[in-house]
Automatic annotation (TrEMBL):
Its EC number is 5.4.99.21. Pfam families: PseudoU_synth_2, S4. This is Dual-specificity RNA pseudouridine synthase RluF. It catalyses: uridine(35) in tRNA(Tyr) = pseudouridine(35) in tRNA(Tyr); uridine(2604) in 23S rRNA = pseudouridine(2604) in 23S rRNA. It comes from Acidovorax carolinensis.
Length: 295
């Protein structure tokens, strides 16, 4: 049977940079067009699955926005088989590689922890673990929605340099007013001497004592690692819990932001990434991103 010809990709699609007369590496250009990740592009180029202006492309080729890129349907077929998984990460698991003896979250992806109410028709198979990597971090002491994917397009959308996908968090806090010792939240008690009165507004009604001007600083005006942070949406969800919506994800960003204004985070849960929500997914279980779901 004769193989179908490669699918042409117009140089003006997706990235919208046809007006740029400069050149870039082919793998970067393919990522800009939303075809795949750079790593996937390198794999496809090595297999001879990519043509530029009708010729099989060599590794490291420089292209312009006007060059015509074609991708063989074989590569597209491999891409369609790649899965994206949504995990409700528990405390005690690291997002990425194992570190300091802690287990990576990918270890939770197995048939026993697959959510029984997953509406997807996908069935788990071991090849789905190959190249499955987190698209974004979630601290070891944080819980909630973690995305793991084999699809470079999804990874680039969520953690690429030009990503605009927002993430929503629920954050329990206690407030250390200037001149006070750091209060312990009731859930952190270790001895009777360290217990605090549950009526203490610093620990149980933080909203009542937290200065409004500091809330404004959380929204815009803080810097981390010598760089100003992008504006964030921060509001009170209840007297002890803030709702953060961020479009960036520096390491331990919310905890460090809170420290700068005298707040201590005692619980952090991510409940949404873009248009995908955690929903009723139980802690420690996972489901597939459905075909119709988009971040």
């Amino acid at each position: 049977m004769r193989q179908a010809p490669p699918k042409p990709v117009p140089a003006t699609s997706a990235a919208g940079t046809a007006g740029n007369s400069g050149t870039s590496r082919l793998n970067k250009r393919m990522a800009e067009l939303g075809l795949c990740s750079r790593r996937e592009a390198d794999e496809w180029i090595a297999q001879g699955w990519v043509k530029v202006n009708g010729e099989v492309a060599p590794m490291g080729l420089q292209v312009t926005p006007l060059d015509r890129i074609e991708v063989d349907k074989v590569a597209q077929g491999f891409q369609e088989q790649r899965v994206t998984i949504l995990l409700n990460k528990p405390i005690g698991y690291v997002s990425g590689q194992a570190e300091d003896g802690h287990t990576p979250a990918v270890a939770l992806i197995n048939p026993r922890t697959h959510w029984r109410d997953d509406p997807s028709r996908n069935r788990f198979s071991p090849p789905q673990l190959r190249g499955l990597a987190p698209a974004g971090r979630l601290d070891i002491d944080s819980v909630g929605l973690l995305v793991l994917t084999q699809d470079g397009r999804v990874a680039r959308q969520l953690i690429g340099e030009d990503s605009t996908v927002d993430k929503e968090y629920l954050v329990r806090v206690v407030y250390q007013a200037p001149g006070q010792a750091a209060p312990r939240h009731p859930s952190e008690r270790s001895t009777p001497l360290q217990e605090i009165d549950e009526r203490d507004p610093v620990s149980t009604n933080v909203q009542a004592v937290f200065p409004p001007e500091l809330l404004e600083r959380l929204r815009h005006g803080l810097s981390l690692d010598g760089e100003p942070l992008k504006p964030a949406k921060v509001d009170w969800q209840n007297p002890e819990q803030l709702r953060f919506v961020l479009t960036e994800g520096k390491k331990r960003q919310i905890r460090r932001m809170c420290e700068l204004v005298g707040l201590k985070v005692v619980g952090l849960k991510r409940i949404r990434i873009g248009r995908v929500t955690l929903g009723n997914l139980p802690v420690g279980q996972w489901r597939y991103l459905a075909p119709g779901e988009r971040f």
